[in-house]
Every structure is written in C-alpha cells, then in structure tokens.
C-alpha cells in the first residue's frame, strides 16, 4: 500500500464509503448465530493486556514472552478448549537458541585497494554469525552476484559456473524487475526475492558470507526496520554439530555506504544494480575485501507455541488451524525513554482476533465435523520459527490438516469494506472465501503490494510450504464512513511510524469493529471448511501443489 497520505482537506471533500449490504443467508444458521456472539470488548481487553509494558515486548525466551504464553493458555482454558500440546498441556516447547551480536566487541571493514572503510554497526551495517559459534572471523574477497538467484524454471542463474566458495557475496534484495507475471511474478515478489532465500542459496554455495544491499524501494521498508530487527537477539534452530556449512556472516549494508566503497574501485552501485536486472548477468569480482570479526552471545531459549483444541465430530481426526504469532521485538538496548516494543497491532491484535474466533466456535450449538486447533506461535519476528517448528513437528499429522487461517496485524481504526486474503485464490479455499465475502458484503482484492512479498512474511507461509492450503486474512484500504484514500493513508502512516517501532502501542481510542469483522469472516471461513466433506487442495500447477 505504498501511497502518499492525503491532506485533511482532500479527504474531507471525498465521498464517504458506505457499508454494502451482505447476504448472511449464504451462511448456515448456526454459523450466523455464532458469528453474532462475538464482540469488541474481549478483543480490546486481550490486546490491551498483551501489549502492556509489563510484558516487555514479548520477546521469546524472556519473562514477558513467558507471561504472554501463560496468559494465552489461561484464556484457552477459560474458553473450555482442550490442551493441544504434545504432552497434554497447552504448550509445545520450541527448542531454539538466542543469538545476539555484541556490536561493541565486533569489528567490520571493507578494504578497497589501499583504502579501508570501517563499517558503523547498526547505522550502516548489521550482521550475524549463523554458525552460532559465539565468535567468527571473515577476511575474504567480495563478489557481486546480482540478485543471488538460481531459478532453473525461470532460465535464470546469477551464479553460472563461478565457484563462490570462500567468497563474501554482495547481492540485491528482491527479484529482478519485471512487468510480466510469468517472469518472477511480474510486480509481485517471489520467494527468490526474500532475504531468507538469499542467505540459504549463499549457504548452499559454500560462501564465507553474504551481504545484502539495502535500498528502501527494493526491501519495502526503511533501514530503521533492519536496524531494529537485527540489532537485538534473534532466535535460531540449534543446528550446531550436524556438520553442515553455515554462514559466518549474514549481513545488510546501506546503499549509501556500499556506494562509497565501490566508488573507490571506480564502480557505481546504481550501474551494478541495473546490470543485475538484465538477462545474462555474470558474477563480478569487486576488488574489495570484507574483514570482520563477530562476537555473539548464544543462549538456549525457553519458548513455547501455545495450543488449544476444540474436538470435532464426524471427522475429528482432521483439523482446521487458526494461527497468530504472540511474540514481538522485546525492548531496546538503550533502556531509556519508551524502550518497549509493545507490538500492539503486530500482533497482539491478531491474538485478540483468534481468541474471539475461539469464542465463536464455542458458541456453536454443535461441534463442527473437523476439529479446530488454535495455535499461537512464538518467534515469528525471528523468521517464522514457531510455525516452522510446528509444521516440522505437528501435533496432528500434516495430511490431516485441512487448512490454515492466519491473522497478523489486524485493523484497529474502523470497519474495512474489502479484504486482500493472501493465498486464497491458490487453492480450493477460493470458493468458500468468496461465499463468506458475499455474506458479509465485502470485496475481495488481489494483493495491493505484491512487490513487498507479504505472502512470504507471516506464519501461513510455513503451512503453504508444506502443501497445506493457507490464507492470511489481510484487510484492504476502503473503510466504512471514510473517504477514498483514507485507508491507504492510514496504512502508509502505520508502515512509516509504527511498524517495528516502540510507537506500536495500545491506544484507548482504537475502533475494534474492524478486528471483530475480521474475526467473524475468519470464523465463517473456517466453519465452512470444517464441515466440507472434501479436504481443500492447491490448484494444479501452483508452486505448493506437490508439497503435500
């Protein structure tokens, strides 16, 4: 939703959007009744508590994170849901380690010819040691590998026959630019464009390190987001000792700083990026070395997923999974002023919505045919670790998981008139989603920011990769009783001023009608799927079709 906020005058002159009529008769009577049983009071109370300063930003492995997990387990028990954990409790322990780079004790510089360019941690360079060794050193030549992509089905290979073992790879984030949907999704981002893929491919190639060039338009967010996310402890699966290669340094650098380094070698960063987007690109040695020593604190993280189960009826061994992540970024290292990343919208709001969905299911006069699992996952902000762990270690067989409905960063400023349910049109969930939309009188839109790759950035993606039809129920930009452009302006303001900042905190003036509406739509979708004799499936030819 990249847009320029409109002036108050222009907004005031725009016509107000009116709620279109729905047709609730399209839903079973029991589903209509249960949906109306929901309300905003419970959502408000849950969001307020989960984003309280006392929970210290709910970072995994902290007291605040543990309090959040216990609170959610208590709410599931109060709602009368059975424990969904593997040991008969409401918890599934997720064995992770926390890795925090000691920036004061670490050094990094790039050497171009006879000139050395020290790199200022956090302000222009961030990095982490994926070997989890506690200390790692790199002194290696840098090679520019374009977008760092090897996609045979696209006829694209940024590596060719060049051996990059032992090299530090400099690369662009995102996909090569295209307007053709058949070429890397056109304007939409594919997984090849995600920074996680870049590091994975560099690891497979035996590189000594990988450094991503940060450009706001290509990353989809400013440097502040990178700094805030990478400047703190991050969770990882502990894979030490398995003998596999890991990157001693996975890093980001600002476009300005790498531009200064490359200029010393007579290179222009804009020209390099432009060349990387053209077919036939070949890796290019830069005549630059990265010299870095990373010191890190590594500790085991005690952090759980939280699970509650509503057993079903005739097909109770099959489940519909609702998910929301309860973790956020914790606290800042400065510990002064407002130092808590409360994560009220991201994602106390999604947790509040899923709890409300659970309340609606409990209001059904009869249990649905399939069971319903309510899954609050940990460590999403660190790379979808909690949902990935559940998919790798499911509490029910994956073949019995009918679908996933994921709620992340719901709307707290009014009633949306349309939704962008990411992933719904990839599978047979399209038909029930359209039916629910008609019932509630809302429009269904394609992803308004496909270039940001939001589909790959929340927990539904973990399910999709395993071949489980998944939907991220994201709201659109038109709102009831608001002029055209108002929703887009609000979305842009959130992205710029609140997202992954300490300013994402609870506001008593928030209007939770939109969160409630989202919960009702999510409930109705899952209720229909739960009673459908057929298991949902990805459409033939979809990238996730064969995973299951």
Number of helices: 15
| Annotated CATH architecture of the largest domain | 3-Layer(aba) Sandwich
* Global mean pLDDT: 92
| CATH fold description of the largest domain | Aminopeptidase
As for the number of domains, it is: 2
What structural class is derived from the secondary structure elements?
Answer: alpha/beta
Please, could you describe this protein's structure?
The chain has two domains: 17-80 and 311-531, Aminopeptidase, CATH 3.40.630.10; 99-298, Glucose Oxidase, domain 1 (3-Layer(bba) Sandwich), CATH 3.50.30. With 548 residues, it is an alpha/beta fold. The chain starts with 7 loop residues before the first helix and ends in a 17-residue tail after the last helix. Helix 2 runs antiparallel to helix 15 (513-531) and helix 10 (344-362) packs across helix 15. It has a 17-stranded mixed β-sheet that branches. It has a two-stranded antiparallel sheet with strand order 7-8. Residues 1-13 have low confidence and may be disordered. It has helices at residues 8-13, 29-36, 40-50, 63-78, 195-204, 216-219, 223-230, 255-263, 269-276, 344-362, 385-392, 430-440, 460-465, 486-497, 513-531, and strands at 82-83, 91-101, 107-112, 115-118, 125-128, 135-144, 150-151, 156-157, 168-172, 209-214, 234-237, 249-254, 284-310, 315-325, 370-377, 401-406, 418-422, 443-444, 470-475. Helix 12 links the parallel strand 17 and strand 18 (443-444). The protein contains 15 helices and 19 strands.
């Amino acid at each position: 939703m990249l847009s320029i906020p409109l002036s108050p005058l222009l907004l005031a002159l725009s016509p107000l959007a009116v709620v279109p009529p729905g047709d609730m008769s399209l839903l079973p009577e029991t589903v209509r009744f249960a949906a109306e049983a929901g309300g905003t009071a419970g959502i408000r109370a849950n969001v307020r508590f989960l984003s309280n300063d006392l929970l210290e930003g709910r970072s995994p492995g902290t007291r605040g994170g543990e309090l959040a997990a216990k609170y959610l387990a208590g709410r599931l028990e109060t709602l009368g849901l059975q424990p969904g954990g593997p040991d008969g409790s409401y918890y599934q322990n997720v064995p992770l380690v926390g890795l925090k780079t000691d920036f004061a004790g670490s050094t990094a510089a790039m050497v171009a010819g006879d000139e050395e360019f020290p790199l200022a941690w956090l302000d222009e360079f961030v990095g982490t040691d994926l070997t989890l060794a506690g200390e790692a050193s790199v002194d290696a030549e840098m090679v520019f590998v374009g977008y760092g992509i090897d996609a045979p089905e696209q006829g694209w290979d940024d590596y060719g026959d060049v051996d990059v073992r032992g090299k530090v790879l400099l690369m662009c984030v995102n996909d090569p630019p295209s307007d053709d949907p058949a070429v890397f999704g056109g304007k939409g981002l594919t997984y090849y464009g995600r920074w996680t893929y870049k590091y994975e491919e560099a690891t497979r190639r035996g590189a000594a390190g990988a450094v991503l060039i940060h450009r706001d338009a290509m990353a989809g967010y400013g440097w502040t987001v990178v700094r805030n996310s990478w400047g703190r402890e991050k969770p990882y699966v502990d894979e030490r000792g398995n003998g596999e290669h890991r990157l001693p340094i996975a890093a980001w650098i600002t476009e300005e700083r790498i531009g200064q380094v490359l200029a010393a070698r007579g290179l222009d960063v804009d020209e390099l990026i432009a060349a990387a987007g053209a077919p036939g690109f070949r890796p290019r040695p830069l005549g630059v070395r990265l010299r870095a020593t990373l010191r890190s604190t590594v500790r085991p993280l005690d952090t759980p997923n939280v699970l509650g189960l509503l057993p079903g009826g005739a097909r109770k061994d099959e489940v519909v999974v609702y998910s929301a992540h309860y973790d956020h970024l914790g606290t800042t290292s400065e510990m002064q002023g407002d130092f808590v990343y409360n994560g009220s919208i991201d994602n106390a709001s999604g947790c509040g919505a899923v709890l409300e969905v659970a309340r609606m299911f409990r209001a059904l006069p009869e249990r649905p045919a399939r069971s319903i699992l309510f899954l609050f996952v940990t460590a999403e902000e660190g790379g979808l670790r909690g949902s990935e762990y559940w998919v790798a270690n499911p509490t029910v067989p994956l073949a019995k998981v009918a679908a996933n409905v994921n709620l992340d960063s719901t709307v707290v400023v009014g009633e949306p008139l349309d939704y962008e349910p990411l992933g719904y049109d990839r599978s047979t969930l399209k038909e029930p989603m359209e039916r629910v939309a008609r019932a509630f009188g809302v429009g269904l839109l394609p992803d308004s920011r496909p270039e940001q790759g939001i589909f790959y950035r929340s927990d539904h993606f973990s399910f999709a990769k395993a071949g489980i039809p998944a939907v991220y129920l994201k709201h659109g930009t038109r709102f009831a009783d608001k002029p055209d452009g108002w929703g887009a302006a609000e979305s842009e303001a959130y992205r710029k001023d609140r997202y992954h900042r300490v300013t994402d905190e609870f506001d008593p003036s928030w209007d939770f009608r939109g969160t409630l509406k989202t919960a009702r739509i999510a409930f109705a979708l899952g209720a229909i799927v739960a009673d459908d004799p057929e298991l949902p499936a990805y459409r033939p030819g979809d990238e996730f079709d064969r995973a299951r």
